[in-house]
Amino acid sequence: MPKKVKYRKQQKGRIKGKATRGYSVAFGEYGLKGLELGFITARQIEAARRAMTRSVKRGGQIWIRIFPDKPKTITSPETPMGGGKGSVDHFVARVWPGTILFEMGSIDKDTAYEALRLAAHKLPVKTKIVSRHHL
Questions:
Q1: Most distant CA pair in the chain: distance in Å?
Q2: How many domains does the chain have?
Q3: At a CB cut-off of 8 Å and minimum separation 6, what does 116 contact?
Q4: Phi-psi region of 48 (alpha: psi -120 to 50; beta: other; left: phi over 0)
Q5: For residue 62, what are the domain limits?
Q6: What is the per-residue pLDDT for 60?
Q7: Is 30 exposed, middle or buried, given 0-12, 13-18 or 19+ CB atoms closer than 10 A?
Q8: What is the pLDDT of residues 31-76, one digit of tens each?
Q9: Could you tell me the CATH number of the domain that includes residue 68?
């Protein structure tokens, strides 16, 4: 979650279109690319990061290219209409098709592909493993 935000609560908004930035492998050799629109929670990002780190046995380098900066609110159960907006529950990152979610470097191809495959299972969007050479 962000250290500080200008406004505590945000409106829902809509995400549409394709990624206009963050769509190429910039830091490592291999990346995990999102193929559909969606929100990824901070917990899902952390679960994917742990899966990758454990898979490579703390070897190589990992970059997380998305950040959960959008607050999501939740109202308590059985709250009547007109009770106002709920309190902030968790933070999410917006993902457009083509966004690079994670990158890996300083590691061989097979190990990187296996680690990214395990990370992809933790995420709610369809993904594809790409390398710097494919782009």
A1: 56
A2: 1
A3: 30, 31, 32, 52, 102, 104, 129
A4: alpha
A5: 30-74+85-131
A6: 92
A7: buried
A8: 999 999 999 999 999 999 999 999 999 889 999 999 999 999 999 9
A9: 3.90.1170.10
pTM: 0.93
**Helical axes 42-55 vs 109-120, angle rounded to 10°:** 150
User: What does the angle CA 88 – CA 11 – CA 8 come to, to the nearest 5 degrees?
Assistant: 40
Count of CB atoms situated within 10 Å of the CB of 45: 22
User: Residue 114 class from Cβ within 10 Å (0-12 exposed, 13-18 middle, 19+ buried)?
Assistant: middle
CB contact at 8 A, 70 and 9: no
Instruction: Locate 72 and state its tokens.
Output: 């999501």
**How far apart, in whole angstroms, are the C-alpha atoms of residue 78 and residue 76?**
7
Counting every residue written for the chain, the total comes to: 135
